[in-house]
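Subject: design request, 427 residues
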């Protein structure tokens, strides 16, 4: 015996429930969905997941979500396991939350609340912290079932999981609105700074290549391999949150900027899509998108569908070239890898690789080089002196090869791609 007592806080004992709603079964398998929910809970160090199960739900009860028999059955299991927190992998209304907490005598958190908590724990930059707080307040405002003053604390996390265990009290809507207004003002200032940085990058017109994909698809591992950076890359959902950018040199000698973005997830809270739109603007402005997939995951196809849906919601242009990267081939058998390669070879712009071993990286870099080196044509444009916006856009794109001033306006020589020409015509 050392004589020292362990005063570290005990982990919160959590139980994960995945409601298997009949209408959702065609969209997502309940098994992988439960595994993902458990992984989400495991992403918070203060939680200890002591149990999990799928709950068949043919019909959603308005007041309690589950039927009375199922509530009693779950309640017994929770009591035996001495559970402190129940995580429901799906939406739970404020009324359902209040009623279930009374029945089970535990705290309850739905999927949105859990993801917000994880994002708050991961945010490191000033902008990331502000955006999480804004999203959390927007979420709280619709519920009005818990005190929200814990959001003032300087910490990772929101207090939904830990916190002082306050009783269900009505939040002050006006105070929340004031806090939201304050956060939006602060975010506006941060956004101006980021715009200045982006404008500075445009003066040195390096193409931007953005890594996107489902959370835990291996984006950060690939980013580290390509850039030699040391971005946090663990087998954990939302291991990285804030976007990271690094310059790399392609085999052709061309320099590009590689951007690692936050991972997407199914049923991403709408508050977070709105709050992180600014952070994901790097994707909107990218010259090329690498969609990284965990091809070894049982739900890989469904995850890819979710990523495409979120990109469409963010407003990513269909004209932006994309390469699909089937990652984590090192987790497959030799026969599976061979079959996957045959399938990828049949489709354009699909490449198999392993960011861990480096297999397939050279072929991917060659594909990136080819995608950015599109055929360019030379043209001469005459812009009236009143068309300053169009002229500025041309210089921002780095396509101007010469310029003189004529009687009718600027005479500009450009060398551009068909996509750049199309975007210019739409200005």
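Subject: RE: design request

Done. Sequence follows.
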């Amino acid at each position: 015996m050392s004589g020292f007592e362990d005063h570290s806080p005990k982990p919160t004992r959590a139980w994960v429930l995945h409601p298997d709603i009949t209408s959702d079964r065609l969209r997502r398998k309940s098994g992988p969905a439960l595994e993902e929910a458990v992984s989400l809970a495991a992403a918070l160090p203060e939680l200890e997941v002591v149990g999990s199960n799928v709950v068949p739900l043919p019909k959603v009860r308005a007041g309690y979500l589950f039927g009375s028999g199922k509530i009693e059955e779950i309640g017994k299991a929770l009591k035996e396991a001495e559970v402190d927190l129940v995580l429901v992998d799906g939406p739970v209304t404020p009324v359902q939350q209040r009623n279930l907490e009374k029945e089970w005598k535990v705290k309850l958190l739905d999927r949105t609340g859990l993801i917000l908590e994880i994002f708050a724990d991961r945010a490191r930059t000033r902008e990331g912290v502000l955006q999480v707080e804004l999203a959390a307040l927007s979420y709280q405002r619709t519920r009005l079932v818990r005190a929200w003053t814990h959001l003032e604390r300087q910490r990772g996390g929101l207090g939904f999981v830990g916190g002082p265990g306050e009783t269900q009290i009505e939040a002050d809507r006006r105070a929340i609105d004031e806090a939201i207004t304050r956060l939006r003002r602060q975010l506006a200032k941060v956004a101006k700074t980021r715009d200045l940085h982006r404008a500075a990058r445009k003066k040195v017109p390096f193409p931007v290549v953005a890594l996107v994909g489902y959370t835990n698809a291996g984006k950060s591992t690939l980013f580290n391999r390509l850039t030699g950076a040391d971005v946090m890359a663990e087998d954990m959902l939302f291991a990285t949150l804030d976007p990271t950018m690094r310059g790399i040199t392609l085999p052709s000698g061309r320099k590009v900027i590689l951007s690692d973005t936050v991972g997407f997830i199914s049923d991403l809270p709408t508050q977070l899509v709105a709050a992180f739109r600014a952070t994901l603007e790097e994707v909107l402005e990218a010259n090329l998108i690498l969609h990284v997939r965990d091809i070894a995951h049982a739900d890989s196809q469904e995850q890819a569908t979710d990523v495409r849906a979120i990109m469409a919601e963010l407003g990513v242009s269909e004209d932006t070239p994309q390469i699909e990267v089937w990652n984590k081939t090192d987790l497959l058998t030799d026969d599976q890898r061979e079959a996957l390669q045959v399938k990828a070879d049949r489709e354009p712009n699909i490449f198999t690789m392993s960011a861990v071993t480096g297999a397939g990286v050279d072929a991917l870099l060659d594909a990136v080089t080819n995608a950015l080196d599109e055929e360019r044509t030379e043209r001469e444009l005459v812009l009236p002196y009143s068309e300053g916006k169009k002229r500025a856009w041309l210089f921002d794109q780095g396509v101007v090869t010469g310029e003189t001033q004529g009687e009718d306006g600027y005479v500009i020589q450009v060398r551009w791609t068909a996509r750049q020409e199309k975007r210019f015509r739409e200005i």
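Residues 12 and 47 are 5 Å apart (CA to CA).
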